[in-house]
């Protein structure tokens, strides 16, 4: 299993708290995947001292969490899972697994994706030495479970982030 890795991202010191401000420097790579900062920015409710705690080992296909923190507070929680079989996403969501993504609905564009009020879950075939399926769960940590205000931003983020993550995994 890979060792914990903490990556620190330099941010603008001019903006103290508004994660939606275009002046805030948002990382171009989040938990090992390059993503347009304009897709990440709307999900960040805090942006001071952004850094990651990452226990995912992509090379070994080792499941684990990756958390983006603002100072000491989680703002984005990701869980990367490799498994032998495709998970039942609706069951996972109904049982609040793995992160408690609430009020899910099928993603409009990408099959195998559920978008919720406070996060998303997506899965795809991905043959590695560890399994045949890869699942990614995202929770926007600071959103209340009943806050529907960021569903579109969550969907836009996952429609780009999930396929980009799959490309980094070198699935066969």
Folded structure, characterized:
With 172 residues, this protein is an alpha+beta fold. The chain has three helices and ten strands, in the order βββαβββαββββα. The strands form two sheets. Strands 1-4-5-6-10-9-8-7 form an eight-stranded antiparallel β-sheet. A hairpin with a 7-residue loop joins β9 and β10 (133-140). The two termini are 21 Å apart.
Profile the largest sheet: 8 strands, antiparallel
Strand residues, percent: 25-35%
With strands numbered from the N-terminus, the spatial order across the biggest sheet is 1-4-5-6-10-9-8-7
Cα end-to-end separation: 21 Å
Q: H/E element string?
A: EEEHEEEHEEEEH
Secondary-structure-based class equals alpha+beta
Please state the average pLDDT score. 77
According to DSSP, the number of beta strands is 10
* Percent helix range: 10-25%
Unreliable runs: 1-20
Inertia-based shape: globular
Number of helices: 3
Give Rg in angstroms: 15 Å
Write the layout of secondary structure elements.
Blueprint: E1 5-8, E2 29-30, E3 33-34, H1 37-40, E4 50-54, E5 64-70, E6 73-83, H2 89-94, E7 105-106, E8 113-115, E9 119-125, E10 133-140, H3 151-169
Antiparallel strand pairs: 1-4, 2-3, 4-5, 5-6, 6-10, 7-8, 8-9, 9-10
